[in-house]
């Protein structure tokens, strides 16, 4: 390949080439933006969007671990737009946020929705910003009523089949109680509702969430970023966006196997079993999951009133 010597180009052509190279570099470079003169440190924005599953939580944990190990990162902002997902994955994200708050300020911002498992994950944040119409809360468990089945061929014992209804109910209650305990531990001094009211698992509009203590301020993502930087003592800072490839808030499809098992297929090829208890906001469950389940699957919720 023959390269045309740069110094043989006209002044105007040189300017055009430099501009094009700058644009190309911006397109392939990480999304890092500098504020102030040079920046005293970095505020890292980590996205929480779509259905929370094992892949989502793993990517989230990796992002926060990188932030904790990167000496230039002084604060983290969680950009949340999710209706929840798997209990175990939500718990892992909660633990990652809690661990990060021990080392640097963590602020959360809820765009359209920060409910159920997503609210669980961000509960340890130092401050939660919401928009007036955000859907926030839903501290509860959603799922279909259990269908008892006997042991099938190849099982090593009678208890290797599906859970008995009473066992499944006890498991759901345990998940619910753990969820409530965590929320009360992190925000009990801010939430004006008692434990029983929290257990109703209502979803609140942003303005209501600020009023009852589920959130702290009405604001924007910029407000959350500025607060995080201020909490870290940064007068000028670099801003790093890390956009994930997680699924949309909605469910993308339900597949049923020959054995009758169903899984929710998300955009990253992971799956959620809708027949197990999930930390998914009721409106997402009823509008996205329930219509795809067999008529025999009757949903049960631990609360779940909508605003």
UniProtKB/TrEMBL annotation:
Example GO biological process: proteolysis
Pfam family, one: Peptidase_S49
Domain of life where this protein originates: Archaea
Amino acid composition bias (Low complexity), ranges on this chain: 133-154
Region (Disordered): 133-167
Record-annotated Peptidase S49 domain positions: 101-142, 175-234
Stated family: Belongs to the peptidase S49 family.
PANTHER family, per database record: PEPTIDASE S49, PROTEASE SOHB-RELATED
Name of the featured protein: Protease-4
Organism of derivation: Halostagnicola kamekurae
Lineage of the species this protein comes from: Archaea, Methanobacteriati, Methanobacteriota, Stenosarchaea group, Halobacteria
């Amino acid at each position: 390949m023959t390269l045309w010597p740069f110094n043989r180009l006209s002044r105007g052509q040189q300017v055009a080439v430099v501009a094009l190279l700058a644009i190309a570099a911006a397109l392939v470079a990480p999304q890092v933006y500098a504020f102030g003169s040079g920046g005293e440190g970095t505020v890292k924005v980590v996205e929480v969007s779509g259905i929370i599953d094992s892949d989502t939580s793993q990517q989230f944990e990796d992002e926060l671990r990188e932030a904790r190990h990167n000496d230039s990162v002084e604060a983290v902002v969680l950009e949340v737009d999710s209706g929840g997902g798997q209990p175990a994955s939500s718990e892992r994200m909660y633990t990652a946020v809690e661990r990060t708050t021990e080392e640097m300020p963590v602020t959360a911002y809820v765009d359209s929705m920060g409910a159920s498992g997503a609210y669980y994950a961000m509960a340890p944040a130092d401050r939660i910003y919401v928009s007036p119409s955000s859907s926030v809360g839903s501290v509860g468990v959603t799922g279909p009523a259990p269908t008892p089945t006997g042991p099938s061929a190849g099982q090593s014992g009678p208890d290797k089949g599906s859970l008995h209804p009473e066992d499944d109910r006890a498991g759901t209650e345990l998940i619910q109680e753990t969820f409530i305990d965590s929320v009360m531990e992190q925000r009990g001094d801010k939430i004006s509702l008692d434990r029983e009211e929290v257990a109703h698992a209502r979803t609140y509009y942003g303005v209501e969430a600020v009023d009852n203590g589920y959130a702290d301020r009405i604001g924007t993502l910029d407000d959350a970023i500025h607060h995080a930087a201020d909490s870290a003592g940064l007068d000028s800072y670099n801003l790093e966006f890390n956009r994930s490839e997680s699924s949309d808030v909605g469910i993308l499809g339900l597949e049923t196997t020959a054995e009758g098992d169903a899984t929710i297929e998300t955009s990253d090829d992971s799956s959620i079993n809708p027949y197990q208890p999930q930390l998914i906001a009721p409106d997402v469950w009823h509008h996205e999951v329930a219509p795809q389940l067999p008529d025999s699957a009757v949903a049960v919720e631990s609360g779940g009133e909508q605003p």
